[in-house]
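One-letter codes give the sequence; each number marks local geometry. A record appears below:


***
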Amino acid sequence: MSQLETVKKDRLFQVDNVGNSFCPDEARGIMRLLGVYVADSEQFLSALPFSLNDTRAGSESELQVAVEGIKDAVDLPKIIEQSNYFQNIIKRSNAGESPRQAVTELEHFLQNNNESVWENSWVRFPKSVLSDFAGKVLDSDLRADKRNPISGLRSDIHRFLVREQGEEIVRVPVSYLLKLSLADVIGLQRNVPESVRRRGVSILSHFLNDNTSPETLSFYVVPLRVGDGMGGAVARETSTRFLLTQLLAMYANKKFLLQERGQKVRIYFSAHPPVRQKKLNEIITDSFYRELFMNPCLSGWDAGEEKYHYMHLCHQVLSRSQLNAVAKLREADIITGNLVVLPNTSNISLANNGTHISLSSKKITDHLRDSSSGFTGVHEKYLGDLVIKMVEHFLPLFVGAYSAAPYRMDFSEFRPEKALGFLPHELDYTHLRMIWRRWKKKAHLKFLGGPITPFGPVWLDRAISTLFRLKGDFISDFRLIDYLVALMSTDQSPALDGTTGNDVKLKQDLADLGIFDTRMSLYMIYKLREFKSMGFSGFEGRYYSLFYSLKDDIGKAVEIQTLLNALAFKYIAEGNLTHAHIPDEPVIESERRQIFFDAAIGIPTFYVRKNTRNIFLKRIIARTNGVRASHRYPEYLRIYNLEYRRALIHILRQDAAGLIEMLNMRETIDDLQQRIDNPSACSVVGKVTEGILNTLNVSSPMCVSSNEFNRAAEKYYREDLRALHLAESFQMWEERFAWLFRKGNNGFNQDNVIRLVLKNRDSVAFLTSVKNDVLKDTVSVEDLIVLIHLVLITIDHDARLYGENT
């Protein structure tokens, strides 16, 4: 950039170059407690937190589940038909006390399911099929308090153990089915190697069922080392976990007689709540919705019922919060009349699925563990909040590039109280109005030069859509709009000002406003994981939706996330980043986050005040091309989102050059550049959208209705993308298996264990013979048992290789 261009941008901002006008001594003093000294140029970069050999990574994957089968065989339709709720609305309808429509819509949901796919249904199978060990695991998990072996059973035991035709039946969500499946494999054979058995038992608790969908936690923490491929090691662990999940589902389908009784479980990555589940949510009460879809928390918590009630609380709070968002839209003058379509009293956002990736710093964790270091939780919070604020400016790089959640909205769905989701609780009114205006412009919601939005009655909106050829819009990552990603601070209680307990104060403010509940964990895009509560110090990225490739996308994303952490600490140590550079005001918080939400929607431009007090954002925009004064908003600059993201990459190449070289990330940065510059071919949103369009045989999402596109997306995730992920995971595991167990490799010789599991069969020959059966889902129970044991051996090996608590 020429000197003249720089001067022009300074004039646009109406400020002088601030340089290091804020006193950095406090932050730099804290960095010195960590042993980071800028003067020591040779050791400076390697001494930074999240730099060379300092980062540990783990992840949590939220998956989608579906049970395939006819209505009379699958639990969800059966439980609806047998429910008191269904019988009561029929009785009330027959008595003329309620409209017949409520019954008709529910009957239509049950009868008209051409694909025979029931998302998030539970399953039923005879308890007699469980091995002794699996039966003991179930009995333990049904206790009110697992810490007390003589405690009584849960009060809702009748939900899980029922009798059908004189047979005791287990009825559980698929998320818990996975745990029982693993327990069954472990307990089925007495000659299983003890190391394999111990590892299997240790990871049982990593299969959670606290929400709507199955969740799995990393089986071991991965150290990010250049020699181990950095983020590639995280991708291997995630893919191995996905492979084991698939094998356990296949095992349960066969061994637990699910398929024989008309139920086939499918587990896959999908970011959105299913279309049919959304429709069901609109025609039943919030209480009945929770009864059907909120998991009972049998796994992962000692007092499962307490956690179960907590999840009910989360659903109730989010549902109330969604209704309160309508009032905010009115206050923001986005809703200007009295005709609105109220959101359902039951919010479905908890059925959104994503991946959370946590990174911890060994250096910071060790200093917090050492009471003599002088570094305390107060310092951790001060630095952590500052890092989060800096990283939030870079989060648009991830949206669509590394993960996505493509979604279609028809014109009739384009009502602000529906489309804007939780954004009224996440953005300042000014930015909210800007986003709504530009979103309507992007969707071409115009007639005779003026904006037009739905009127209300669905039949009328559809007629207007057809008459005026209003098709609605395509969104790159709708999960980030449809979910409460990050709550905005209040004027009195900033969430990221570096002071301890600020989150508690903010939650109280939000609770008083009817937006949140103090008992819930504060929702953040990028979240500090504090040592006092987690046992490690780091950050959790909660902005990942759906990956196209477990191998290529996860690893690269983790590396960029790591680089941003290290760069933030570099800025702090150099005195170039303090809390004063990013003031803690709601409007400034909203100003930087609007860019992230714009990227999720696909809006090409955003606006920043010329006199913004966010000095860090000014520095980025000073390196951004195509910036000009806005004609519509005279006090603002208009900035292209694409050019902003290109500027972020330019900053990484310049300011993090030494870190990129040290961490061997040149290829990662080049890959990121391609994802931003050539999104149709290189980004996740481009690849996933192309896959969906291929199933529809159309060239654009706008060629079909929202229902057609979104249902096709679900089918693509359930079939084609699941098959891709399974094949990729099997290949990665197979390569790891071959590499790990060369004789004497890394000092872990598992030849005897492998021979025992394979019963002296050749491992290469066995894997070759069984691979296609796994990919086609025709593998036998016997081969599944062997495969699961082999996967457990690799998990055990890597967990010990990396260290149990690295």
About this structure: The chain is about 50% helix and 10% strand. Confidence is low (pLDDT under 50) at residues 1-22.
